[in-house]
UniProtKB/TrEMBL annotation:
GO terms for cellular component: extracellular region. The lineage of its organism: Bacteria, Bacillati, Actinomycetota, Actinomycetes, Streptosporangiales. SUPFAM superfamilies: L,D-transpeptidase catalytic domain-like. GO terms for molecular function: acyltransferase activity; peptidoglycan L,D-transpeptidase activity. Pfam families: Big_10, YkuD. It comes from Actinomadura rubrobrunea. Pathway: Cell wall biogenesis; peptidoglycan biosynthesis. InterPro entries: Big_10 (IPR041280), LD-transpeptidase (IPR050979), LD_TPept_cat_dom (IPR005490), Transpep_catalytic_dom (IPR038063). Keywords: Acyltransferase, Cell shape, Cell wall biogenesis/degradation, Lipoprotein, Peptidoglycan synthesis, Signal, Transferase. This is Conserved lipoprotein LppS. It comes from the Bacteria. Residues 1-27 form the signal peptide.
């Protein structure tokens, strides 16, 4: 929203401001031509009570009145050549306001984010010069791009309650060339702001991770101000996107593979500790990965088969196909915490699985019911480390390495909700 400040206009100036606005609009129409990209300043209004018609107006608006095909990533800038600004409002044709910021000396106002493509905007401004009201207005249109991009998906989902390790994953519907411009448009607000950073996985996906796990009860809102952002030559964002979510309790589990045990802590307190059976090892494909995993999703049931090993022949002794109950996924390479009634005798005694964490039906059902996406499952004691890009293994990267994946090469310091 435009900053109103503390400057007050006397009531008897209301008519004067209205007259000044009308005069400025007429002057702008007659004095400014169409065309251009909105990068050059032009006369957009004339002061009420100016000494002579040729005097330069005290308020200058860029883009100029009548400009067409203005680049959406151009900023609207309103400058008080003389005096100060009182109020600036920039509206799209549908009445939506473009937020902006007033300088501390009230001499300049500029939009904070990019503009929507293919949209007509109206700028209304008022000010004060030597005790007298001034006003200026302008109307211009942004260009219609050759191509557009948008946000295809965001995790978490709107309104979702997540675990303390949950990343924010933004997926675009086409590759982004100017990653810095797009990253700059991603605004984060939090109930208790914490430092974090974005990291690009590829041209379509960018992930935010706080420096440390989220505080319990944290409320987070992502606003992707991508409308009008230039992602590549001729490609601009078509619309903004906003998603809000909340962080649940700190549910952090530890799977100790050598000890065949899984311990679940909630907000630092041990709530369950049970025997499990992990990967039997002997080969990399049968070895459970060690590291900080996140719960990515869950399903009941999940069909698990030997196809992941390339074994599809039913006569092969390695062949299997099972309907598995209460399965919670913790990596992209097929690792789950799930019910395994066939290995109950081994749980707590030996590791016999193909890499998953096998648990009793009772515990698996409980864990399935309690788990949120983004809960932490740390596995220790194997010689196969979890790759940072295996599922949501993002916490495997040290903070400085994670931050280096940002196009802006700097941490994010969110605003407050």
């Amino acid at each position: 929203m435009p900053h109103r400040g503390n400057t007050r206009i006397p009531r008897n100036w209301t008519a004067a401001i209205a007259a000044a606005t009308l005069t400025a609009a007429l002057a702008a129409v007659s004095a400014c031509g169409g065309g251009g990209d909105g990068t050059d300043g032009a006369r957009a209004g004339r002061a009420f009570g100016a000494a002579t018609p040729s005097a330069s107006p005290p308020i200058l608006i860029t883009p100029a009145h009548g400009a067409r095909a203005v680049r959406p990533d151009s900023r609207v800038v309103v400058t008080a050549r003389r005096g100060t600004l009182h109020r600036v409002v920039v509206r799209a044709a549908d009445g939506t306001r473009a937020p902006g910021r007033m300088s501390s000396d009230r001499r300049t106002w500029r939009t904070r984010w990019t503009l929507r493509p293919g949209t007509v905007y109206t700028v209304d401004s008022t000010g004060v010069e030597q005790g007298r009201p001034t006003a200026a207005t302008a109307r211009f249109a942004t260009l219609r791009p050759q191509a557009a991009f948008g946000v295809a998906d965001v995790a978490p989902r709107p309104g979702e309650v997540v675990g303390v390790g949950m990343p924010i994953i933004v997926t675009f519907d086409r590759p982004v060339a100017d990653r810095a411009a797009v990253e700059r448009s991603l605004e984060l607000r939090m109930s208790r702001p914490v430092v974090g950073a974005w990291r690009w996985l590829d041209g379509r996906r960018v992930v935010f991770r706080p420096r440390r796990f989220w505080p319990t009860g944290q409320r987070v809102r992502l606003i992707a101000h991508t409308a009008g952002v230039r992602a590549a030559p001729g490609v601009y964002g078509r619309a903004d996107r906003a998603v809000g979510f909340r962080v649940g309790p700190a549910r952090i589990s530890t799977v100790d593979v050598p000890r065949h045990r899984m311990t679940v802590r909630v907000n630092g307190r041990v709530v369950r500790s049970v025997g499990i059976s992990a990967g039997k090892g002997g080969a990399r494909k049968y070895t459970t990965t060690s590291g900080v995993h996140l719960t990515m999703g869950k399903a009941d049931p999940v069909i698990m088969s030997s196809a992941w090993m390339g074994v599809t022949d039913r006569d092969d002794p390695r062949y299997y196909k099972k309907k598995v109950r209460h399965a919670v996924q913790i990596s992209a390479s097929g690792e789950y915490v799930h019910a395994a009634p066939w290995s109950v005798r081994a749980q707590g005694r030996e590791n016999v699985s193909h890499g998953c964490v096998n648990a009793s039906p009772e515990f698996a059902r409980w864990f399935f019911g309690e788990t949120l996406r983004g809960d932490v499952v740390t596995i220790i004691g194997t010689n196969r480390p979890l790759e940072w890009n295996n599922g949501w293994g993002y916490w495997q990267l040290p903070w400085r390495v994670w931050q280096a994946g940002s196009a802006l090469k700097r941490p994010v310091r969110p605003g407050r909700l």
